[in-house]
Amino acid sequence: MRSLLKLWAFTLLAVAVEAQRFVRFISTDGKEYTGDAVMPAGVTDASKSTSAKVIRGDILGDFEITDTVKPIRTLLAPIAPERVRTVRCVGFNYIAHAGEANVTIPEFPILFYKPWTALSTPSDPIPVTSGYQTQGNFTSKMDYETELVVVIKKAGSDIPLDQALDHVLGYSVGHDVSHRGWQIERGGQPQPQYSMGKGADGWAPWGPAIVSTDVIPDPQTLNIWTKVNGVTMQNETTANMIFGVKELVSFFSMGITLLPGDVIFTGTPSGVQLGKTDPVWLVDGDVVEVGLENVGTCTNALKYV
What residue spans define the domains of the chain? Predict the structure, then answer.
């Protein structure tokens, strides 16, 4: 009987700590909370959630899901930007995207970084300051990139491939906002200048939740898409990534410690404006929706400031 009680208590504890969709939000009382999104029946887009069970503790450490349910007024980035240690990004990680950009398929993942100040909410405007706007003979070339985002929960370095997913808290979707003029034309030729082309404040909206690995045990089976002003521009599957999540986590930990709260933007599929014969660049007021199956959508408008 005692062993049965212990098993029952352990089962309750396991249920108590297994969140499905981590969200950070402002409630109607004006306070900030972290919670487990309460999803309407048949809905998997966390941006459609209107309430969440409040989480006590730290989702990157020890936490408890309480029975307290709070209404969601505004969704924030799933982790406060200043708590994210490193934002790693991957270039040309889908075969078709490498082809449209006329880039040789890489033998190893192409890594670049964004500052944490680039991180933004799933709904705030994307600020485009004067240096990135059209000026003189310089035409603004703002482009979109939807990406699967990986969130690290457990520190590790030189992580073996078969243990890589053990270090993952869950998955999100992000928008790697890109300015091709600064990235390429004004970049460090003959190689791209990623930092000036991609690292501005607010140029990495992400969310609307971190969906746990319990919900998404295999991240290489998800539909991923982008809509610009309601028109679908990208529509592919993460199965077509050149380097999957396991490979990226393992590779990026080579001699480097991954820390809880690190995020990895894993690259974008084909369908961006880069490489098109007659590209239509994003301009002030354009609305970009990036989405990932079983995670949700981020919808952000470009705003010249």
Answer: 21-75, 81-304
Question: What length does the chain have?
Answer: 305
- According to DSSP, residue 210 is labeled E
pTM over 0.90: yes
d(CA 79, CA 84): 7
What would the pLDDT profile of 123-157 be if each residue is shown by its tens digit?
Answer: 999 999 999 999 888 999 999 999 999 999 999 99
State the architecture of 81-304 in CATH terms: Alpha-Beta Complex (3.90)
Q: Exposure pattern of 271-305 as b/e (b: 16+ CB <10 Å)?
A: bbbbeeeeeebbeeebebbbbbbbbbbbbbebeee
Nearest-CA neighbor of 249 among 146, 148, 116, 158? 158
> To 10 degrees, the CA torsion angle through 263, 272, 239, 219?
30
Q: What is the DSSP letter of 156?
A: B
CB-side neighbour CA atoms (13 Å) of 103: 21
Query: What is the Cα Rg of the chain in Å?
Result: 20
